[in-house]
Automatic annotation (TrEMBL):
This is Hsp20 family protein. Coiled coil: none annotated. Residues 27-137 form the SHSP domain. The keyword Ribosomal protein does not apply. Belongs to the small heat shock protein (HSP20) family. Keywords: Stress response.
Length: 137
């Protein structure tokens, strides 16, 4: 028996890209660091919050690459001269990826008390009714 996918279903035309996005998000390699929250702040807006204690604004980058929000963190190695007796605070680089639906746009990013907030908004499309004229063949 063959596996039925969204892209091969006869009533689901043009959903191949959605299927690829789901596969890409499953393989994105997000390990669990840093921890994050996603909250719905209104009917059409969201906020992603990452716990980035120890990172400065200069250590972080936020990009949108092919409908994918990518947040990267890399701390500078300016404290090489320190001798740690115990080092329990993670100072590793990270990359978090979030697949964005069509119409979702990234707003502002705010750093506050060791938390990075990234605001997203979803623009609602206007309903479109299109009449197709039938030509005689």
């Amino acid at each position: 028996m063959t596996k039925l996918t969204m892209g091969s279903h006869p009533y689901m035309l043009g959903f191949e890209q959605l299927e690829r996005m789901l596969e890409r998000s499953a393989k994105s390699g997000n390990e669990g660091y840093p921890p994050f929250n996603i909250e719905q702040t209104s009917d059409n807006s969201y906020r992603i919050t990452l716990a980035v204690a120890g990172f400065s604004e200069d250590d972080l980058s936020i990009t949108v690459e092919d409908r994918q929000l990518v947040i990267r963190g890399r701390q500078s190695d300016e404290a090489d001269h320190r001798i740690y007796l115990h080092r329990g605070i993670a100072a590793r680089q990270f990359q978090r990826s979030f697949v964005l639906a069509d119409g979702v746009e990234v707003g502002e990013a705010i750093m506050e008390n060791g938390l990075l907030h990234v605001d997203l908004t979803r623009a609602l499309p206007e309903p479109v009714v299109q009449k197709i004229k039938i030509k005689k063949g």
